[in-house]
Amino acid sequence: MSPADVKQCAPAGGGGRQVCLRPWLPAVIGAICFANIILLGNSFVYDDTYIIRDNPRLHDLTDFRAIWLSDWWRPQGQQAALPNPNRDRLYRPLTLFTYALNYALGGLWPTGFHLVNVALHALVCVLVWYFAQRLFGDAALSTCAALLFAVHPVHCEAVANIVGRAEILCALFLLAGLLILLPPTGTPGVRRALPAGLAFFAALLAKETAVCYPALALLVLHAVIRPRARPTPRWWLMHTAILLLPLVVYLPLRYVSLEQRLLRAPASAGLFNPLRMADRGARMVAPFTILGHYTRLMIVPSRLSCDYGTAIVDPQAGPNAMTLLGGLTAAGGIAALVGYRRRLHSTWRQIAIATALIAASYVLISNTVLLIGVSLAERLMYWPSVPVLILVAAAVMWVWRGPCAKGRALRRVAELLRVCGILLVVVLGLRTVFRNFVWTSNAELFFTDVATYPQGAHLNKAAAGELIQWSTRPRDEYERRRILAQAEHHLIQALRIYPRYPEALRDRGRVRALLGDVDGAIRHFESALQLAPRDTASKEHLAELRGQAQVKEARLTELLRQIKQHPNDPALRKEAGELLIELARPREALEHLEHAVQLVPEDAAALRLLGQVLILHHEHERAAQVYEKVLALDPDDWEAHINLTAPIRGRDPAAALDHARQAHRLRPDDLRSNVNLAEALAANEQYQQALERYYLIRRGFPENHPFRAVIRDRTDELERLRR
Question: How many domains does the chain have?
């Protein structure tokens, strides 16, 4: 289609509609879609904490070496004293410099950082419009492509996550370099290659994936130059040499900054990229699976995640639906490239050009030529989505101007198709807006994504880490233990998926320590150190626990020695029993506590400890008898009422309800007494009252509190029982 044809096919309706076919519209829509990041006051989330919040390098703009000659993941604090030749290394100094500028202007104010990301995204939307316009000279196509780019949910990770700025800056400078290279009119000249090379250099300093720029630039030049004006081989050689010139400066800088390395060290584990552990056969199939996932993300971005590691992409599982989709995408791409031989302004030529640009952009993140740090990630599609969405826009314009044109087959439904297109943009924009809510905090992000992909090892570990932090806040011991149990469930799941996960072992050790299981905590910290000998956190926890354990073991040894001399001393027996409970040895504690109770039957403290041990041994009837004795001594012992409720709930629900009400009367604001009362009501088939009690409990928790999920599951079950 010639430019004259394009003008003829341009929508009628006067200047109003033409005004909308300008770059301002995608920029405004893109800013609106991500405005709630700023309005919600999103915090530092995920990698933001290490790269920005806890990074002292950003506090001094003048420290040239710290920002411009060091790597992205440079160790901080105690880790800096432990050299690790296999640690991850990346070189993104320009992105770090923009964070330092943010800090200089507003300190660690998250909204300021997010504001820059949203503004940069709006600017990229403008450049996408101009790039498509320079390629094809079609304002409607350019607006369609830029609008889709502005609202697409796959960009949430790059824009809503502050460290995604590396992707945005890289795309911005790549587009700037391509626009500099392409004149608005006439044939490109060598003079434009020099400033285009500077933009390429800036893109490299923002993110290393910009290394695809020379291939993109040569493809674009070849695509826009008419066959009659085809330059000489010398012209191409000069352009290629100039475009590659920034690498002469960049590669030595990278080599020095990454401590005499050009590439990141090959990771010994495959947690984030399971292809590292795959055999040759799986390595041949897995890239098609990854391509299928990216295709699905671009077409149906409903299930999103901040991590797609082990078990989400499992090369050992063999081909699946995503593999088939990836194979079809690859075949479609090869078929589309055939259109490159068509005339300059034909739709198939446009599709072929966009496909070639997609291939040049995607190859570095495809895990085919080079294994990267992750199997796939939504943020990695920020730049490649530009040619993808230009291709989609070219196809849309072909349908609108072909089958939907006057007198053609789809003319009758043309307006309906227009409305559907507008609705698609609205739906994608709404999906983006709602996804931004997930990026408000680590808790919201990890709990949402692990619910979407429960087979993700890292997601389970990350959710457990948030739960461990939650467990330090509640005053109620019962709630604290419930949260820790949920954290341990996620850690067990993570270790089942990926057993060689030192951070998950370390966190499980933390959970065991918080639950009082010192021996179990020590075992998990030791296992973590076997996998990661430089893990200073595990070493610190281990040293502390060994010190505590040694003190307690020493005291226990002394108590046992004294008990041999004074076997009928109830105080010694009681202290030994309590210490054995703390050391997670309840079976040994039982003997001492039974003896203490025999010696002093009216010692309520010894009876409480004995009841606790009997519950741990699942001897509920004996525990009930013990707690009845406690209540005979102290009728206002609310915890005894609670502990007595569960053992008798099955055989005497009315009595259980009476004890639950007594506990609630004594401690009406306590979570444990409220949950206990709700369960006692349910045991008596008073489902409506139980539900009302749970609804009151739920209102007392913030929206992202992990206990809300537990309550929701229980209320759903009670609703079914009531019906």
Answer: 1
DSSP 149: H
DSSP 169: H
Question: 272 by DSSP, 3-state: which?
Answer: coil
DSSP for 474-532?
-S-HHHHHHHHHHHHHHHHHHHHH-S--HHHHHHHHHHHHHTT-HHHHHHHHHHHHHH-
Q: How far apart are CA 692 and CA 682, in angstroms?
A: 11
Tell me if 701 sits within 8 A of 707, measured CB to CB: yes
In the Cβ-directed half-sphere of 586, how many Cα atoms lie within 13 Å?
Answer: 13
Residue 313: beta bridge partners?
Answer: 310
Contact between residue 491 and residue 521 where contact means Cβ atoms under 8 Å apart: no
Residue 10 pLDDT more than 60?
no
User: Which positions ≥6 away from 266 have C-beta within 8 Å?
Assistant: 86, 276, 371
Question: What is the C-alpha separation between 712 and 698, in angstroms, rounded?
Answer: 8
**Tell me, what's the pLDDT at 5?**
40
Assigned domain for 540 exists: no
Q: Which residues pair with 310 in a beta bridge?
A: 313
Span 447-500, pLDDT tens digits: 988 888 888 889 999 999 999 888 877 566 777 888 888 899 999 998 888 888
Distance CA 187, CA 189 (A): 6
Does the structure show a pLDDT above 50 at 12? no
User: Strand, helix or coil at 461?
Assistant: helix
| Count of residues in the chain | 723
Cα 142 from Cα 675, distance rounded (Å): 58
Helix axes 165-181, 93-106, angle to 10 degrees: 120
CB 467 within 8 Å of CB 508: no
Crossing angle, helix 536-565 and helix 518-531, to 10 degrees? 150
pLDDT digits (tens, 9 = 90+) for 23-56: 999 999 999 999 999 988 888 999 898 899 888 8
Domain holding 377, by residue range, is 3-8+22-74+89-262+275-413+427-435
Please spell the DSSP secondary structure of 289-318, one letter per residue. HHHHHHHHHHH-TTS--S---BTTB-GGG-
List all residues 6 or more positions away from 239 whose beta carbon is below 8 Å from its beta carbon: 190, 193, 217, 218, 221
pLDDT, residue 443, reads 87
Q: Is 69 helix (H, G, I), strand (E, B) or coil?
A: coil
In a domain, 712, yes or no: no
Instruction: Identify whether the C-beta of residue 3 lies closer than 8 Å to the C-beta of residue 137.
Output: yes
All residues at 6 or more sequence positions from 336 whose CB lies less than 8 Å from its CB, including other chains: 348, 351, 352, 355, 391
Q: Is 198 within a domain?
A: yes
Query: Are 461 and 450 in contact, with CB atoms under 8 Å apart?
Result: no
* Rounded Cα–Cα distance for residues 537 and 350 (Å): 55
Quick one: what percent of the chain has pLDDT higher than 70? 91
493, 310 in Cβ contact below 8 A?
A: no
- The answer as to whether 153 is a domain residue is yes
| Residue 321 exposure: Cα atoms within 13 Å on the Cβ side | 2
Burial zone of 699 (CB within 10 Å; 0-12 exposed, 13-18 middle, 19+ buried): exposed
Give the model confidence (pLDDT) of 63-86 as tens digits. Answer: 888 889 888 888 765 454 445 556
Contacts of 141 (CB under 8 A, 6+ apart): 132, 350, 390, 393, 394, 396, 397
